[in-house]
Amino acid sequence: MAAAADGAGPDGAGPRGVVAPQPPCPFAGEGGAQASRPAVLRGTPQSRIAHRAPARRTGQQAGAQVVTLTCFRFGGPGARLRQLASMPPVYHALARVPGAAFARMMGTGTGEGFDPAPNTAVWTLLASWDDMAAAAEGVEHAAPWAARCARAEECCTLFLAPLSATGRWGGVEPFEVHPDPDARAAGRPIAVLTRATVRARHLIRFWRKVPAINAQIAAGPGMLFRMGMGEVPLLHQVTFSVWRDAGAMRAFAYGGKGHAAAIAAVRAGDWFAEELYARFAVLGTSGSWQGGAVLREHAPAG
To answer: What single string gives the DSSP state of each residue in 48-63?
Structure first.
């Protein structure tokens, strides 16, 4: 297994094109043993979440940024209520995490998240980090992650390298794009994140488009993982999906009527007050989801 050209950590190709990190990458791969965890480097900058600074202004090396998406699944009513109660102070805790520059705790909808009905069992925590060492250390040991993983029935993390980003999230540009995105993406699954603030007058029209997009995702080959999230129910929506490769991702984005029609309607009607579109290379994963591997190809709907 050859090491990645940029030195971010060697990867091996798993079943169906799934990338699984191997030592010395600082987190466990799909079904692999726990690799040795690197110590946090001395002089690691303190969190800038409280200042909401764009990543490109933090002074980090261009392209070194790692983004993590951690998903938590909680069991009974007690665990779910405890998660809800922990929401107000979570950003105070996040602001003290070294190496973190941006973070959002989000709820999800039913049906793998792509539904307006809330799912109180599943929550996500998205963050950007100065580098892989900070990401691995933070996800494993920082309280906002470790405490929730300890309470959850299962949790997983996807480690991502930004390839492209257009737009803003809460007025900032949170993702630092790699200087050579084509080389960074070579041989890796591709993740796509969209984030939008829906204008209130377009809410009904927006959510009427969702079932067609859901059906297209379910029927499309090459989809490995998906999650729908939101900061404010109905209004602030985030979609996240992982595809076997860039070809599968493009086939979904441009080849189906449901998604293409929704994009055309959004552009014609000015539905969003703010929007962001980003693509990532999947560096690896840790944990498990739905009782198995985090990334696994979904069977097309019959």
So the answer is: -GGGT--GGGS-PPTT
